[in-house]
UniProtKB/TrEMBL annotation:
It comes from the Bacteria. Keywords: Signal. InterPro entries: ABC_Gly_betaine_transp_sub-bd. It comes from Devosia neptuniae. The keyword Signal applies. The keyword Signal applies. Residues 49-325 form the ABC-type glycine betaine transport system substrate-binding domain. Residues 1-22 form the signal peptide. This is ABC-type glycine betaine transport system substrate-binding domain-containing protein. It holds the Pfam family OpuAC. Transmembrane segments: none annotated.
Length: 340
């Protein structure tokens, strides 16, 4: 009986002591961990080099090099810039998720590759490559715009043209006759009632087109001309875009047809040009995805970069370095508050 009572007392003492021992163990572990740094956060760009496609045309190549420099400097990313091609890059991203980034993807032109890749959740657009969606239009020189502030749109040409060139026809520099834009421009001239007011000039090639525009500007000639962006010519000289009005799909279809009996005005068709990311960028390295979602560049800025590229001795890499050095007012908005 006595032993039974002693055993019960000992058991009670052991049960009472157990929480105390546990507390002491926890305290010992806490003391052992004092001064031990927490594990580092996962790398912002992941553990593998981030591949960016550098397409063959200058604007896309510049974007690739600019983003490579900013991501390396601001986020500490290891970047691999690789050669790219619109169709080949779109196909590779859709099947393998590589490269991770294509900064200037004209997705309307590879819809048969892009749409299945979207459906398979292999790629996703981060943001428009450029702040504007209309890449084609009509332009007038700054000196004409300054003398005629009322001339802000294509619709205003019919009233303004008779006063521009002493009553004689004003030259309208279009594009080469075998380009689709030549037919559209001819029909637009009819749509705006300009047939008796302009002389349509269709140069033989791109070089002659630029020469005609440059020579007219050097003479301070009042001209109207067609052009597209991004392009160095629009930054090398002072030009003002004319408001082409809203895009009308039915009107635009007629304007692009040889048989368009009653053409009506429309803006040129907008293009969807995006920074394309592999889907895993959004899920695995969301900070970098956020950067690209803020990275739309104004077309006028790219026009200026392309003009710099035309200077003697200029290179893609050198122009990209200069942009990063001088235009922090633009790219710091892309970085935001996400940089480590």
């Amino acid at each position: 009986m006595i032993f039974r009572r002693l055993g019960g007392a000992l058991l009670s003492l052991m049960l009472l002591a157990a929480p105390v021992a546990a507390q002491v163990s926890v305290l010992d572990q806490a003391q052992d961990n004092v001064g031990v740094a927490p594990p580092p956060p996962p790398p912002v760009c992941g553990t593998q080099p981030l591949a960016i496609a550098r397409m063959s045309w200058p604007s896309a190549a510049l974007l690739a090099e600019i983003h490579a420099r900013i991501l390396a400097a601001q986020f500490g990313c290891e970047i691999k810039v690789i050669p790219g091609d619109l169709a080949a890059t779109g196909s590779s991203m859709g099947s393998t998720g590589q490269p991770a980034v294509a900064p200037e993807m004209w997705i309307n032109r590879i819809a048969e590759l892009w749409n299945p890749a979207i459906e398979a959740q292999m790629v996703r657009p981060a943001a428009p490559s450029y702040a504007e969606a209309n890449f084609e239009g009509w332009f007038i020189p700054d000196y004409v715009a300054g003398a005629h502030p009322e001339l802000a749109s294509a619709a205003a040409l019919a009233a303004a043209l008779p006063t521009l060139n002493g009553g004689t026809k004003v030259r309208f520099v279009s594009c080469p006759p075998d380009w689709a834009c030549a037919l559209i421009n001819r029909n637009l001239v009819r749509a705006y009632g300009l047939g008796n007011l302009v002389e349509i000039v269709e140069p033989a090639n791109r070089f002659e087109m630029d020469t005609l525009i440059g020579e007219a500007v050097s003479r301070q000639e009042a001209i109207v001309f067609y052009y597209w962006q991004p392009n160095a010519v629009l930054a090398q000289f002072g030009f003002r875009p004319l408001d082409m009005g809203p895009y009308n799909e039915a009107n635009a279809k007629c304007l692009a047809s040889l048989s368009c009996p009653s053409p009506a005005p429309s803006a040129f068709a907008p293009e969807t040009v995006v920074t394309a990311l592999a889907e895993w960028v959004f899920t695995d390295i969301p900070t970098i995805a956020g950067y690209f979602q803020r990275s739309s560049l104004p077309l006028a800025e790219m026009n200026g970069l392309l003009a710099q590229l035309n200077l003697p001795g200029a290179t893609i890499e050198g122009v990209a370095d200069r942009f990063v050095s001088e235009r922090g007012d633009i790219w710091r908005q892309w970085v935001g508050n996400d940089a480590p």
